[in-house]
Amino acid sequence: MEIISKIVGEINGIVWGPIMLTLLIGAGLFLSLRMGFPQFRKFGYMLRNTIFGIFSKNQHEKDSSGVSPFQAVATAMAGTIGTGSIAGIATAIVSGGPGAVFWMWISALLGMVTKYSEIILSLRFREKNEDGRWVGGPMYYIKNGLKLPVLAGAFAIFAMIACLGTGNATQSNSIAIALKSTVGISPWITGIVLAAITAVVVLGGMKRIASVNEKLVPFMAIFFVACALTALVLRIKEIPAAFALIFEEAFNFKAAFGGVAGYGIMRAMQFGFSRGVFSNEAGLGSAPIAHAASSAKDPVKQGLWGMFEVFFTSIVICTVSALVILTCDFWQGGAYEGAALSIASFNEILPGVGGVVVTLSTVFFALSTILGWGYYGEVSIEFLSKNSRKAVLAYRYVYVAFVFIGAVGSLDLVWSISEMMNGLMAIPNLIGLIGLSGVVRAMSRQHFDRLK
């Protein structure tokens, strides 16, 4: 086991090292330049056609071949608003310093176009399966767009394995730890309950997953943001200093070349970029799998939701989480890290309530991630097995079992393998995005030319 851990660690050092992060950021910059930076030029249009138009009829229309556009969005956001929104940003601050928050913003701004492109391609090259449902994602636009079926299969394999870890076992483990530390519930009980909930939802397929996430995701997001804003109102005098610290440390060169594990610019960039990617998944290719199931007829309009997902997850949720942490002193000294740091910070500002808020948010965020990633794995196995119903059903049962295993087990190796698979997913996806960027550009121009 030690040898396996070492090998996985070495691969992760490469997969999530400077080269991969450069590729992710470079792809975002390349796509932004080629599309004319729509995350800035079309920001108002994006808001009007997403969150401000959430109650319009076309956002909730669906047919027998897919779920509604908003249900697809809710499922995609369920996969991204996970524990990374709480524990991930806390880890970034402890490991990379407050400056990591700035680089997370940069990662998100570029990632908005990456995810926009992923979703457009996912709808452009999706297929209908034997049940008459829309299925798509990177494996389909790599196969149908780039005509590289082997590369498409590689993505599906990496995604299928990552779903069992990143989207499943690690999430149920976070829930079990949070409930045990806050209210003393045994991980075994948590595991049984979570597995039962997951079975009821996931075994019902995409439509049931989408129906649950349509209700769960907006509630949990509003709940957490409202509580975080309440805490920040109580610490409003400290907020300017927190922002100043973020910008100062983002460009702090003091420890960058000194061999000291300090808060230099390189360390801040590394953790800001990597945690940004983990929070919004732009470039990994997971979210477009959910969007492809939508009955939406306009790929560009659905792509705008991808922009919004990244903006809301990394710019809004992660920022309010970071500000709560930075207006307290627990992030210094190394006594707290991850979710424990968030709990301690919220508890200081909202005594007796803060810990409950973070715990409930962790539970809801992680549960929604489990449900969302369950569908990603299902589409991956469907692609690999050439639409075998038996293979899909078997995967669903395995997925439910991993929920329980994650809750009661020690997952250091699972975390490492999951991170490795996430990184490996990005490689074929980025090849697909860059190779098909001309298609995204042409479809975007056609859409916006019709508005003139």
Structure description:
- It contains 20 helices and two strands.
- With 452 residues, the chain is mostly helical.
- It has one domain: Amino acid/polyamine transporter I (Up-down Bundle).
- The longest helix has 35 residues.
- The chain is globular, with a radius of gyration of 21 Å.
- The chain starts with a helix and ends with a helix.
- About 2% of the residues have low confidence.
Unreliable sequence segments: 255-263
- Put simply, the count of helices is 20
CATH topology: Amino acid/polyamine transporter I
CATH architecture: Up-down Bundle
Number of strands: 2
Helix content: over 70%
Q: How large a portion of the residues is in β-strands, by DSSP E?
A: under 5%
How many distinct folded domains?
1
Distance between the termini: 61 Å
Backbone structural class: mainly alpha
